[in-house]
Design goal:
- The protein is an alpha/beta fold and 176 residues long.
- 30% of the residues lie in helices and 33% in strands.
- The chain has five helices and ten strands; from the N terminus they run E-E-H-E-H-H-E-E-H-E-H-E-E-E-E.
- It has helices at residues 25-37, 45-51, 63-74, 98-108, 118-126; strands at 3-11, 15-16, 40-44, 76-80, 91-94, 112-116, 130-138, 146-147, 156-164, 168-175.
- Strand 9 and strand 10 (168-175) form a beta hairpin.
- Helix 1 runs parallel beside helix 3 (63-74).
Length: 176
């Protein structure tokens, strides 16, 4: 049975904003290693649209970006969307029977499945399917934006903390 884990960069005041919190080299390496060790991902539409940046090679990429792109492309992806009509390589669109399909993935996939997208993570939490949250906490207060938690969550217990470079920490909370 799969473990569903939501992991994203988040500000001290709880917001997710990929444009206003660019990762430094240490955080970027953290994400590359995380993607390499997780063969499956479940995406909401907006986050998937952002991540499609990594599909075609870009001429200005350095070795670190090429390494991340290769790892991301290798992941099997499921994309939850009722507006998309197609998805890119190595991805499967889930547009109907969403809860049943996601439950089936949880039942049949081994290991960890990364859940990307705050609204999608909230839906999975509402269905009792989320297992863990990893907040990659950056030392910045954004003051506004999309909150990491899109709604109330079940009780959680701190199960780990890992420093990433000089200024970022990953806090891991397990749903109890």
């Amino acid at each position: 049975m799969a473990r569903f884990v939501s992991s994203m960069n988040v500000s001290l005041d709880g917001y997710v904003d990929h444009d206003r919190m660019a990762p430094d080299a240490d955080v970027f390496r953290h994400w590359t290693l995380a993607v390499k060790r997780t063969p499956n991902s479940l995406y909401g539409r907006k986050t998937y649209d952002l991540m499609r940046y990594w599909e075609p090679d870009q001429p200005d990429w350095d070795d670190a970006r090429r390494e991340f792109a290769a790892a991301w492309r290798a992941q099997k992806k499921w994309v939850v969307s009722q507006t998309l009509t197609e998805v890119g390589p190595n991805a499967t669109l889930i547009s109907s029977d969403i809860e049943a399909t996601v439950r089936s993935l949880k039942d049949r996939l081994p290991g960890q499945v990364d859940v990307s997208g705050t609204i999608l993570a909230q839906s999975l939490a509402d269905w009792g399917l989320m297992d863990e949250y990893q907040l990659v906490l950056h030392p910045v207060a954004l003051g506004s934006g999309k909150p990491f938690f899109a709604g109330p969550r079940p009780p959680m217990q701190l199960s780990g903390s890992d420093r990433i470079g000089a200024t970022v920490i990953c806090l891991t909370y397990t749903v109890t």
